[in-house]
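Bug #77: duplicate submission created two jobs. Keeping one. Sequence:
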Amino acid sequence: MIKRNLDCFLEILKNTKRKLRTAEILEYTTQFPDLCTGCNSGTEVISAGLELLRMGRINREIGKGGFLWSLRN
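Kept job's structure:
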């Protein structure tokens, strides 16, 4: 797992302060071009999310349109 992908995912969640679908996270990667160079597909975003979930850093829910990701309180 590329650490930049994990950092990218976390930075997006920190900045938006709300639950995001995988597709929304992918859209936000353009706002952090230096950090999010490795998150170019939904597969990469989901992989980073699953790793952060395993690490206990974020939450995941099943919602309309796919996974909803959020920072763990």
